[in-house]
Amino acid sequence: MTPARPPAPRSTRRLSHDRVVREALRLARAEGLPAVTMRRVAESLGTSAMALYRHVDNREALLVAMLDEVAKGISLPEPVADPRSEITVLMTAIHDALHDEPWAVRLLITDRLAGPSILPVVERIMAALLRAGLSPRDAMVAYGLLWHYTAGELLSVHHDVPDSFGRRMVAAADPAAYPALVEVFSALPPGPAGDWFPENLQRLLDGLLKHSPGPR
């Protein structure tokens, strides 16, 4: 007769997919993405790394699940008939959801991962671009430009330093040699850059929709 298997440690029995993902999110927000390893998440949960594999296939699957949780948190507004207004509110919703998640922005850009919960948002943006009169190819190009502007702006905000090396270098520059640089940087307000996302998003949409044949 085969002896009964000893019961699993209490921490292992209480593990779940949601609990693993929540702990990984906590680590990413507190210490950054490098802290999110299977071993570190397991230690934080008081269990072994092998126990995590009962709930997530691997680290990449864990990262996708983390991104999916962020996507679920996007506050989706009601659909808007006007394509430009629809794109504006949706890109703003993405921006706002990622504003305090620098680890997620870097992961989306460098690893090109995403959670399936983002698909309804992208679907609505693509539909709005098509309604604005863009061809499928131009809609894809436009979405890429909108996303890269949003991601780049977020990276800039996450790493904005009021007294950065670049600002100090321009402040010390000779106005006679670099008059345009000195004029532009002198006009910037002191402290971190302001939230220019809404204004610049409209500038980008001006260019993207300028030559479209109109709503369809």
TrEMBL record:
Give a GO biological-process term. negative regulation of DNA-templated transcription
The family database entries (InterPro entries) matched by this protein are listed as: Homeodomain-like_sf, HTH-type_TetR-like_transc_reg, HTH_TetR, Repressor_TetR_C, Tet_transcr_reg_TetR-rel_C_sf
Extract the DNA-binding region annotation as residue ranges: 37-56
The signal peptide stretch is: none
Keyword terms: DNA-binding, Transcription, Transcription regulation
Residue span(s) of domain HTH tetR-type = 14-74
GO molecular function terms attached to this record = DNA-binding transcription factor activity; transcription cis-regulatory region binding
Q: Does the keyword Transcription apply?
A: yes
Supply the PANTHER family for this chain. Answer: HTH-TYPE TRANSCRIPTIONAL REGULATOR RUTR, TRANSCRIPTIONAL REGULATORY PROTEIN
Protein name per UniProt: TetR family transcriptional regulator
Q: Which organism is it from?
A: Streptomyces spinoverrucosus
